[in-house]
Amino acid sequence: MADFNTFEENYSAKDIEVLSEMEGIRKRPGMYIGSTNTAGLHHLVWEIVDNGVDEAVNGYGDQVSVTIHKDGSISVEDEGRGIPVDLHPQLKVPAIELIYTTLHAGGKFSNKNYQTSAGLHGVGATVTNALSEYVDIQVFRVGKIYHIRFEDGGKKTVPLEVIGETKKHGTLVTFKPDARIFKTVEFKWETIYNHLQEEAFLLKKVHFFLKDERTGQKHEFFYPNGLMEYINVLNQSKKPISEVFGFDDESSYIRIEVAFQWCGDDYNENIYSYANSVRTHDGGTHETGLRLALTRAVNDWALQNGVIKETQKLDGKDIREGLTAIISVKIPEDLLQYEGQTKGKLGTPEATGAVNEFVYTNLTHYLAEHKEFAVDLVKKCQASRAAREAARKAKEAVRNGKQKKVDLIISDKLAAAQSKNYADNELFIVEGDSAGGSAKTGRDRLHQAILPLRGKPLNTDGVTMDRLLQNTEFSTIIQTIGAGVGQNFDVEDAHYGKIIIMTDADTDGAHIQTLLLTFFYNYMKPLIQQGMVYLACPPLYRVYKKSNAAKEFVYAWDDESLEEAKAKIGPGYGINRYKGLGEMNAEQLYATTMNKATRKLYQIRIDDPIVVEKRISTLMGNDASKRREWIEENVVFNEEDRFIKEVKD
Q1: Which of 431, 473, 608, 613 is catalytic?
Q2: Is-catalytic flag, 608?
C-alpha cells in the first residue's frame, strides 16, 4: 500500500511556483497567440496594430503605419491620442507601464474611452512585450515626446521620460520578437500586406501604410468605397450578374456596413462577417440577421411584382447561391458578446434585429430601383431551386430503386468504409499505390476509406463539369462522398465527416495537396467552410534504440522534435528518415498518421478570403511566372528536396 504520509511530505507549499504575469506568458505563449510559428509571430504585430485601429475607428486620427526594419524589428505608428502617461490614481504607476506589463489593463472595458474596439481582454500590448527582445515606445501627447523601454521579456530598462517637444499626437511602438520564443522571427511582407489590406477595406476612412526597409517595398492602402472594393477583389476572376452594391449606416447604436454581388459561375454561398473589425469565422447573430433580410426582401419584391406566387416562395439557399456578401458591424462595448472563448462567433442578440431591418429596408429599395437586375436574380433563384429539386428527386429515385445511379467513372482502387454512421467516417485520399496499400491494410475498415491516386489529379480551376466528371479520381471522390458536386452539392448528404489528404512531404506531395484543395474549394466549398477537410501529417523521422529497435522508438515530425526524440532514446540511437509514405509499413502508417488517438491533422480553414483567392489564381492560374515567383519566395526545400511546412502564411 502506498505511503501517503511520505507523498504528502514531499509535496508541500515549497513546490508551488508563482510566476509573474510576464513569466507566465513566456512559459505558455500558445495560450495567448496560438502558436510560436509564423502565425504567432505576426499576431504580435496585429495586437499593436489593433490599438492604432481602435483609435482611428473612434475618430482619433486616420493613419496607421507599419515599418519592417532591416534588423528584424518592426514599428507601428498611429495618429491617435497617445497612450496615457500620467500616474494611475490607485497604483501610482504610469498608465503606459501598466498597459505594457499587466494583463487586463487597458481602456477598452467600457464605453468611456472607446465606443467600439477590436480588443476584448486587454492582453495585447502586454503579450507583445512579454514575447519580445525589446519594446521601445514613444508617445506624442500634449506637446511632448514621452519615451519608455522594456527588454528581455518586459523588464523596464528605461523609465518613462520626456525626450523632446512635438506638435504630433499618437504612439510609435518598435519591438523585436524574441528568437528564444519563436521558431522564426522573420516578418513576411505578404502576410502583413494582406492583413493591412483587409483592415483598410473594413475601415474606409483610414489610410494604412506599409514599408519594408529590407527590400525598399512600400504600399498605401485606402479604400473609400470600403466593402464594395473588397468584393471587387474577391470576385475579379468571376462572372458577375450584378454590379457590386452596398449600404452603410453609422448613425445607429450598432453601426452597419454591407456589400453584395451575385455571380453566375459560382455555385457557392460566400458570406464573410466581421464584428468590430475582427473576422467572425463562425458567423453569429449579425449573419443571421443578414440571411433573414435577404430571404424576406427578395421574396417580398417578387410577390409584390407578380414574378412569383405565394406558393412559389424562394428558399434562402437558392437566393444565396452565387452570392458574395460581406457584413461588418461596430458594436458598443456594453453590448459586445461572443460565443465561446474565441471571437469566432458573435453572440450579441441585438445585432440580429438591427441587421435584419437595416438590410431589408435598403435591399427592398435597391430592388425597386433596379427592376431588370431583380428579375434576373429571381430567375437565377428559380433555376437554382429547379436544379436542387431535380437532384433531390434523382437521389430519392435511386434510393427507392426506381432509377439507376448516374454512370460515373469509379476507381477500382477505392476501399470503401463499411459504416453507415457517416459522421464518424473518414475518407483518406492517398498519394501512391505503395502508401495506399499500407493504408488499406492498417486502416479501421469500419470507418476509414482509402482512395490511392493514379498520379497527379486534374487542375480543376476553370475546367468544365463534363471534363471534371470524366476524370477518374474526381469522379470517384464525388461518388464516394455522396453529396453531389457544384450546384447540386449538399454537405448534409456527405458520407464522411472528415476528408483527409495524405501525401508525401515533398514537392509532388505539395502539388497534389494544392490540386485537391482547389477542387474542394471550387466544387465542394461547404466541406471546407464546415471544417471537414484535413491534411495528414506523417512523421519525418523514427528514432530507435539500436539494441532494442522493436520496442524502444519515438517518432518525430520536425527537426525540433527530432532533437527531443534523440534525448529521450539516449545514447546508442538510430534514425529512420522517411522520404515518403510508402517507406512505412501498415502498422507504422496507422499508428502515426491514421490512428485518431495518436495522429496529427491540419484542418483547412478559410481565414482570409483575399489570400485564398490570390492563392488559387496564382498557383492554379495560367501565369507560370507568378506561380514560380510565389513558390520561390514562400516554400522552402532542403537539400533532399523535402517539403518543409513552414509555409509562410
Answers
A1: 431
A2: no
Per-residue confidence (pLDDT) for residue 15, from 0 to 100: 52
Average pLDDT over residues 31-52: 90
Verify that 216 and 309 share a domain, yes or no: no
The answer to the question of residue 12 being in a domain is: no
Asked whether residue 170 falls in the same domain as residue 245, the answer is no
Q: Which residue carries 506523417 as its cell?
A: 538
Q: Which of 174, 197, 221 is the last residue of a domain?
A: 221
pLDDT tens-place string over residues 540-588:
899 999 888 788 999 998 888 899 999 999 999 999 888 888 888 899 9
**375 in any annotated domain:** yes
Whether 450 and 411 have beta carbons less than 8 Å apart is answered as no
Q: Provide the pLDDT confidence category of residue 340 given band limits of 50, 70 and 90.
A: low
Looking at residue 376, what is its pLDDT? 93
What is the predicted pLDDT for the residue at 178? 95
Looking at residue 205, the DSSP 8-state letter turns out to be T
Q: Are residues 31 and 163 in the same domain?
A: yes
Total number of domains in the chain? 3
Instruction: Decide which of 333, 361, 382 is a domain's last residue.
Output: 382
Bridge partners of 247, per DSSP, are: 258
Q: What is d(CA 607, CA 179) in angstroms, rounded to the nearest whole number?
A: 26
The answer to whether residue 457 sits within a structural domain is yes
Distance CA 105, CA 180 (A): 26
User: Cell 501529417 maps to which residue?
Assistant: 537
Question: In which domain, by residue range, is 43 found?
Answer: 21-221
Q: d(Cα 258, Cα 251) in Å, to the nearest integer?
A: 15
- Give the lowest-confidence range in 116-120, 345-349, 361-365: 116-120
Confirm whether 78 is a catalytic residue.
Answer: no
Report whether 642 contacts 540 (CB < 8 A).
yes
Is the Cβ–Cβ distance between 118 and 49 less than 8 Å? no
CA distance 590 to 540: 15
Q: Is 357 a catalytic residue?
A: no
3-state secondary structure of 602: strand
Q: What is the pTM of this model?
A: 0.79
Q: Which residue has the higher pLDDT, 630 or 174?
A: 174
Q: Which long-range contacts (CB under 8 A, 24 or more apart) does 639-648 make?
A: 640/579, 641/506, 641/507, 642/505, 642/506, 642/540, 642/579, 643/504, 643/505, 643/506, 643/507, 643/509, 643/510, 644/505, 645/505, 645/537, 646/37, 646/38, 646/183, 646/184, 648/38, 648/188, 648/190, 648/191
User: CA 310 to CA 307: how far, in whole Å?
Assistant: 10
From 339, 461, 506, 646, active-site residue:
506
Catalytic residue among 508, 552, 583, 649: 508
Domain presence at residue 413: no
In angstroms, the Cα distances linking 362 to 286, 305, 366, 641 are 16, 17, 6, 56
Cell of 605: 480553414
How much is the mean pLDDT over the chain? Answer: 85
559 in active site:
no
Return the DSSP state at 536: E
| H and E: helices and strands count for the chain | 21, 23
Task: Assess whether 232 and 353 both reside in one domain.
Answer: yes
> Which residue among 321, 426, 504, 608 is the active-site one?
504
Residues 197 and 231 in one domain: no
Cell of 92: 501610482
